[in-house]
Structures are given as C-alpha cells and as structure tokens.
C-alpha cells in the first residue's frame, strides 16, 4: 500500500467495527416495547380479537339458521292462520246478510 501512496494513490483508513448499542443504552421506547407487560397486553389483545371473530362468525351462522327456519316453517303458518281467519269472517258476514242467526246464539 505504501507503494500505491507514493505513486499518487489514495489510501483509505481502516474501518473500525460499528459500535453496538449495549442493553443499558437502549432508548425508553425500545425498553417499553420490549417489556413483558406490553407483550402480555399484545397477546391478550390478539386472543380477544380471535375469540370475538369466532363468536361473531358462529353468531352469524346461528342467525342464518334461525332466519331460514323462521321463513320456511313459521311464515307459511302465519299466512295460513290469517287466511283461515279471513275465511271465518267472510262466512260470518255472509250469514248476517242472509239473515241466519249468528253461530252460538240461542235458538227460540
């Protein structure tokens, strides 16, 4: 290298190894993010999010089952009961127009 410097070359200084930060010189933010309390809080938040997601998914499935069951079984029953009530009212109206005594009235 000395021969290169004599001929006009440039010699670079030797590189020193980079200083590593000692655990004592960590910043407050790094200490907080690496603390046990923060890691437990993150774990609790992840567990809560997982349970909430599963609960919402199962609640959605249960709501779908209840809704379709209601539409298939209960709505036709309600329609049929309403139809029967309308038919009964129509019969009572026709009997009153024809002059027949109402059903359940005592005969003389």
TrEMBL record:
Any single GO CC term annotated in Swiss-Prot or TrEMBL for this entry: mitochondrial outer membrane
Family statement: Belongs to the Tom22 family.
Stored InterPro entries: Tom22, Tom22_pln
Protein name: Mitochondrial import receptor subunit TOM9-2
Region (Disordered): 1-26
A Pfam short name: Tom22
Biological-process GO terms, alphabetical: intracellular protein transport
Subcellular location(s) of the protein: Mitochondrion outer membrane
Annotated membrane topology: Single-pass membrane protein
Coiled coil start-end: none
UniProt keyword annotations, A-Z: Membrane, Mitochondrion, Mitochondrion outer membrane, Protein transport, Receptor, Translocation, Transmembrane, Transmembrane helix, Transport
Membrane-traversing stretches: 62-79
Domain of life, per lineage: Eukaryota
